[in-house]
Amino acid sequence: MKNVWEKYLRGILFLYFEIYTAATLLNSAIYLSKGVYEDPSGNWHEIDRAVIVLVAVIAYALIRYIKVNNFFLKDIIVYVPTMLLVFLYVFLRGLTVELASTAYRDIFINYTAGFLFVTIIVLIVNVIRKKKSVKTAETN
């Protein structure tokens, strides 16, 4: 179990907390710069952010650990169901509160941008690891 924690869960869990914290701080800084001292959406906004960040971190984990040789095919395989999951969450939230008329468009743009950011990070990490393993193999 310790190996599972070290290899998979610890990094993903810390990534979740780092992204959630960064998103919360950025959101707070934007509100404060506009002179708004309280989040007008309240606690539900925090829960919404937590759920969306969780889906994004799950997407990261899937991209990183699913075994598909073609990286871009793997991205599509991960993107489509996670985007549908995000849309489902927005739909379910719409059952409890009136959504903005642009809610689906906004979440599509925000999630897709976040997904692309995560994809680029994973791609860079994979390239660095591949170069490192090639370099290590050459020195042996």
What features would you highlight for this structure?
single chain; 140 residues; 4 helices; mainly alpha; elongated
What does this entry look like structurally?
The longest helix is centred in the last third of the chain and has 37 residues, at 103-139. The chain is built from four helices and no strands. Helices cover 83% and strands 0% of the residues. The two termini are 32 Å apart. The chain has 140 residues and is mainly alpha-helical. The mean pLDDT is 84. It has helices spanning 2-33, 43-65, 71-94, 103-139.
Task: Furnish the topology, listing elements before pairings.
Layout: H1 2-33, H2 43-65, H3 71-94, H4 103-139
Structural class: mainly alpha
Biggest pleated-sheet summary: none
Question: How far apart are the first and last residues' alpha carbons, in Å?
Answer: 32 Å
How many strands in all?
Answer: 0
Low-confidence stretches: none
Task: List the secondary-structure elements in sequence, H or E.
Answer: HHHH
Number of helices: 4
| Mean pLDDT score | 84
* Quaternary structure: single chain
Strand content: under 5%
Instruction: Classify the helix fraction into a percent range.
Output: over 70%
Instruction: Tell me the overall shape.
Output: elongated
Computed CA radius of gyration, to the nearest angstrom: 18 Å
